[in-house]
Design brief:
By secondary structure, this protein is mainly alpha-helical. Helices cover 27% and strands 0% of the residues. It contains one helix and no strands. It binds zinc ion. Zinc ion (ZN) binds next to loops.
Length: 66
């Protein structure tokens, strides 16, 4: 369904803050479309994705949430 294309970033040095900011911007519409979903957990390692973030990839193992 949703292809995680944002992961293919140009290889300039992005800080984690910039990556997260980009993720927030690019996933905002997904967040709204999926409003009402409960907190997601990582399918690979089981880590919970905080409900008030727009992370698309697990913080721990980088597995995509979608
Ligand atoms: Zn994980």
């Amino acid at each position: 369904m949703n292809q995680p294309n944002e992961e293919q970033q140009p290889s300039r040095a992005l800080t984690l803050q910039e990556i997260l900011a980009n993720a927030l911007k690019s996933t905002h519409t997904h967040q709204e479309a999926k409003a009402g979903l409960e907190t997601k957990t990582c399918a690979r390692c089981g880590a919970a994705r905080p409900a008030d973030t727009a992370l698309r990839y697990c913080d721990y193992c980088s597995n995509p949430f979608y």
